[in-house]
Amino acid sequence: MPDAAPKTQTDPEPEIRLNGARLTPDISGGLYWPDRRTLIVADLHFEKGSAFARRGSLLPPYDTRATLLTLEAAIDRRRPERVICLGDSFDDLGAADRMAAADRTLLARLVAAQDWLWIAGNHDPTPPADLGGQVAEESIVGPLLFRHEAFLRPRGVMAAGEVSGHFHPKALVATRARRHRGPCFISDGRRLILPAFGAYTGGLFVTDPAIGALFPSGFDIWLLGKRRIHRLPGSAVLR
Length: 239
Hints:
Helices cover 18% and strands 28% of the residues. The chain is of the alpha/beta class. The radius of gyration is 17 Å and the shape is globular.
């Protein structure tokens, strides 16, 4: 399989402000926090392709390698001291055992080179300990709270600065030339949901009621393009 060509990102870079933190969405689908030198990624879903194959749906078995190469490129570009994975890093509890030896070696090398935190997800409540890193249900760092899935607390109250994944948000917008569909970041300044990072992950449109309920006062999106990220108001999203 040829190596996946990493995307490039043009200047000036967009910014997401969340509960006082200034965050940089990366063209890879990751999120960089410059003040804490932290790279955040969500929903890697390693070995999703092999999981489909076990159920009889034959897909090219290269998703884990493609995801790892994209992650490695983002780390090389941002040079973080810490990486936080927001859950569902592995598609199921047996995913790590199905990884090719070369992929496990590459992942272990990446984990060993940074302070690495695995947030537990619904697909991987117990990420494999032998790959290194620490595991937590959620983590608070300064003004931000990292967890796998955003949820409404009683009476709709939620913790400001919540950063999560799980929903794999995507959006459809129209430009003068054409319509564009793609994964996106979504935020209202208090809550932020990252797009899925994995190569074989689908997505949920931001117009879905499950996402709308989390942003009752509206939201902006940061849509991933081929070479840049486009910030758009939620009103620009096609239904």
